[in-house]
Specification:
Blueprint: H1 3-22, H2 39-42, H3 67-71, E1 78-84, H4 87-97, H5 105-117, E2 125-128, H6 133-139, H7 143-155, E3 164-166, H8 178-185, E4 189-191, E5 199-207, H9 211-222, E6 227-235
Parallel strand pairs: 1-6, 2-5, 5-6
Antiparallel strand pairs: 3-4
Helix pairs in contact: 5-7
Length: 237
């Protein structure tokens, strides 16, 4: 890493340390000081329970595949999400990404691991969705990599943090409609890690249309991955 980038990274880490010192963790639900999530409050979070599409993971009233996937299935073996992107979970994602409260990755990653183990799907390794280097320098870390590290430890699978590389600095997906999101990330990722014949679990914070996860799956499959699943903390309703 060039000297200038090391200085920027150190400055970002110092800012995060000061932030944690001045503003200690508070429960996202009841605001109790000392923890990000009280044991009593976890049950009130918007867990995805009941039937869900076996491909994209969207909650369903009935059936096994949603209307969208029956017409145009995602180019990935399946996506699972632990929560709906609302309430305290929406706040948690925003705090994890933007004010830099990286300590949230611990409890959230544990909940992701518990949710994944309930799926009974075998994978060989865990890969986070990468940020472009420029955006990572600005933020100081990749929130998906933090979540993936906790998850990988809990499910006892190797973490290949550098397996995927974002080769284009794409526009933020939240600014785009469904068709634009697909075009925005087309060819945006390259696989730089050894995944041939492996079953890969891709980890991200939020799934909206699945376009980013599909683009990651395309890169992994081109490199020979046998199967590609994805797990996100939350998905848009």
């Amino acid at each position: 890493m060039p000297g200038g980038e090391r200085i920027v990274s150190a400055g970002v880490r110092l800012r995060h340390w000061i932030l944690d010192l001045l503003f200690p963790p508070r429960c996202l639900v009841c605001q109790r000081v000392g923890t990000w999530l009280c044991a009593e409050c976890v049950s009130s979070l918007p867990f995805i329970r009941g039937p869900a599409c076996e491909r994209c993971g969207v909650p369903l009233q009935k059936g096994v595949v949603c209307r969208r996937c029956s017409k145009q299935p995602l180019r990935i073996d399946g996506v699972r999400s632990v929560f709906l992107f609302q309430g305290a979970i929406r706040v948690a994602v925003h705090k994890l990404k933007y004010p830099g409260r990286r300590g949230l990755a611990g409890p959230l990653g544990v909940l992701m691991a518990e949710g994944w183990l309930e799926q009974h799907i075998e994978v060989d390794l865990v890969v986070p969705v990468p940020l472009h280097p420029r955006r990572r320098r600005q933020r100081g870390y990749n929130q998906s990599a933090l979540l993936a590290a906790v998850l990988a430890r809990r499910i006892q699978r190797p973490l290949l943090e550098e397996a995927l590389v974002r080769v284009r600095n794409t526009r933020p997906q939240m600014e785009l409609d469904r068709a634009e999101r697909r075009r925005n990330v087309l060819g945006a990722f390259r696989c730089a890690g050894y995944v041939r014949g492996r079953r890969v679990l891709v980890v991200d914070d939020v799934c909206t249309t699945g376009a980013t996860l599909e683009a990651c799956a395309d890169a992994l499959r081109e490199a020979g991955a046998a199967r590609v699943w994805a797990l996100t903390l939350a998905r848009a309703p």
